[in-house]
Automatic annotation (TrEMBL):
GO molecular function, one term: 5-oxoprolinase (ATP-hydrolyzing) activity
Protein name as it appears in the record: N-methylhydantoinase B
InterPro entries per the UniProt record, alphabetical: Hydantoinase_B, Oxoprolinase-like
Recorded coiled-coil stretches: none
Any Gene Ontology CC annotation: cytosol
Segments forming domain Hydantoinase B/oxoprolinase: 9-528
GO biological process, one term: glutathione metabolic process
Organism for this UniProt entry: Reyranella soli
């Protein structure tokens, strides 16, 4: 074919690049118009374009795997209820159904059909996390999904350009932050509209009437590229299990991975059953993070779309914690679901003979604080005049050490969300963060050190207590090291007065007290005694590890001036080698 052919290979590549630019602008529009800090500051969202069958053709790089890969399945649920031939120009659809969206009620998914010259040519979808959805709020305490907030089934947000004001009023009346939540709904609609507009401009420029051939080209190329990489891995069946804290009892996440010519199959049979608390995971979210974990190692450079996702097949037994059925509580499904890439890494470590990171903190350690009358669940007389507020701030511990490199400190992996500057929430609430710093000695020792966690000390300027909704893990079961590396340091949650708080659940912080959130570190990789002494000494100088830990874990004696005591170090390492 010649370059002048509208669908020549060269033009197909140009259109593919342009499609990525379209969805990136879609996502940026959501960030720029978003009302809540989770959207505007942290990038807790997703955006993508779909064909008329509901297959995701392209996704924005901006966004989280839990949103993106769940949304990739969600559009099919919309089409099942609202077939493409019934959609009209100006229609906008939405839901926050955890089982047909992205896993919990706090996420809204919007779908907008794109029309060109009166013909439907594509759909744009987007998702973001809203600051509040009513009910008990973002907590693990609910026993059913009905307690967790307002549940909106798949329905129209707008019909032929006219917004359903009744729906907007219902949402406003059921949430604590109506301006932020309704604002985010309009932001979702706006970003989809931007995507529709830019796609039409692209189609006009390239003189194409539909996305059929472009979509088929993108999906087939992505699928074949993924299969080529999978076929380079030693075929076979690999098993791995990981125990995490859970809520009232530990949870075992058990995976069996089968690698073959047609792709990778993951089965979570043997995983613990559903929890009585809101840490259960709808299977859409399980698929999202398990497939992401596989892609990180096997095909990180292959575009994420229906083609590449189709060769990673994930199943989990119904009524297990990774395939919780309605009406199980799921508000904090990320606490469990974000552990799955570590489980996938454990399987792939066996298949690849290394080449994968150690376990990391994985689950987020977000600050979610509430204030106002009755907010703490304690003595109502203490909060009757309290200032109402609801803030969420994204924070994380350390990641596992990587082959050839240390882990990343205070970094949200696998979610990919950004840290929210503390000043943002301090400006809109009485919350004050008195301390925020790296947590020394929290990264697991190894030839490559695990990433450090962080410590935050949080209080209030109000005279009333406030509530902290904790949904933290890796307190009882820290991230494990790999290939001789040591485990990262476990997390902890305490008051400055000395009281130890639970890792999960809504708890009161007295007005004159402070909560100390000590986040876990990532596991180390490789024998710590193989870490160069000069590198260990530099870690001590930087404050990443103490001189005591350098001696104990690495066999390196560091002088007060930061230099290495060569003689003492040689003795320490010789003793360890015996």
């Amino acid at each position: 074919m010649s370059f002048n052919d509208p669908l020549s290979p060269i033009r197909l590549q140009l259109m593919w690049d342009r499609l990525i630019a379209v969805v990136e602008e879609q996502a940026l529009a959501l960030i720029r118009t978003g009302f809540s800090t989770s959207t505007r500051e942290a990038g807790d969202l997703s955006a993508g374009v779909f064909d008329l069958k509901g297959d995701m053709l392209a996704q924005a790089v901006t966004g989280t795997p839990g949103h993106i890969n769940s949304m990739a399945r969600a559009v099919r649920h919309f089409l099942a209820k609202f077939p493409a031939h019934t959609m009209k120009e100006g229609d906008i659809f939405l839901t926050n159904d955890p089982w047909k969206g992205t896993g919990h009620l706090h996420d809204f998914t919007f779908v907008t059909p794109t029309f060109r010259r009166g013909k439907m040519v594509a759909m744009f979808a987007s998702t973001c996390h809203v600051v509040d959805i009513g009910g008990r709020g973002m907590t693990t305490d609910a026993r059913q999904v009905y307690e967790e907030g307002l549940y909106i089934p798949l329905m129209r947000f707008a019909r032929e350009g006219k917004v359903d004001e009744t729906l907007v009023e219902i949402v406003s009346a059921n949430v604590r932050e109506p301006i932020q939540v309704v604002g985010d709904l309009y932001s979702l609609a706006t970003c989809n509209e931007i995507g529709c507009r830019r796609l039409i401009e692209m189609m006009d420029e390239f003189a194409i009437d539909d996305l059929d051939r472009l979509g088929a080209h993108v999906l087939e190329k992505s699928k074949q590229a993924s299969l080529e990489l999978i076929r380079k891995i030693k075929p076979g069946t690999y098993k791995y299990s990981m125990r995490v804290d859970g809520a009232d009892k530990p949870i075992d996440l058990v995976a069996t991975m089968t690698i073959g010519d047609s792709g990778i199959d993951v089965d979570f049979a043997g995983t613990s059953g559903v929890s009585a608390f809101g840490i259960n995971v709808p299977v859409c979210y399980t698929e999202a993070y398990a497939s992401f974990g596989v892609k990180c190692i096997v095909a990180p450079k292959v575009p994420n779309n229906e083609g590449s996702l189709s060769v990673i097949r994930v199943t989990a037994p119904p009524d297990s914690i990774l395939n919780a059925q309605k009406p199980a509580p799921v508000a904090a499904r990320h606490v469990t679901g974000q552990m799955l890439p570590d489980v996938m890494f454990g399987c792939l470590h066996q298949a690849l003979g290394g080449q994968v990171p150690a376990e990391g903190t994985s689950c987020l350690w977000n600050l979610f604080a509430l204030g106002g009358p009755g907010s703490t669940g304690g003595d109502p007389s203490e909060t009757v005049h309290a200032k109402p507020f609801s803030v969420m701030s994204f924070h994380a511990g350390g990641t596992g050490a990587r082959p050839g490199a240390d882990g990343l400190s205070a970094t949200a992996f696998p979610s990919g969300v950004k840290n929210v500057p503390i000043e943002v929430n301090e400006a809109v609430s009485p919350i004050v963060v008195w301390r925020k710093e790296y947590r020394q000695d929290s990264g697991g020792a190894g030839e490559f050190r695990g990433g450090l966690g962080q410590i935050m000390e949080v209080g209030t300027l109000d005279k009333a207590p406030f509530a902290l909704s904790a949904y933290y893990d890796r307190i009882d079961h820290p991230a494990r090291g790999r290939e001789g590396g040591l485990a990262g340091k476990a997390g902890s949650l305490t008051l400055s007065s000395g009281k130890v708080l639970r890792g999960k659940g809504l708890q009161e912080v007295p007005s004159k007290d402070r909560v100390i959130i000590a986040m876990p570190g990532g596991g180390g990789l490789g024998n710590p005694r193989k870490r160069p002494a000069a590198v260990v000494a530099e870690d001590v100088r930087q404050g990443f590890i103490s001189s005591e830990a350098a001696r104990r874990d690495y066999g390196v004696a560091v002088n007060d001036d930061g230099t290495v005591d060569e003689g003492e170090t040689a003795k320490l390492r010789a003793i360890a080698a015996e």
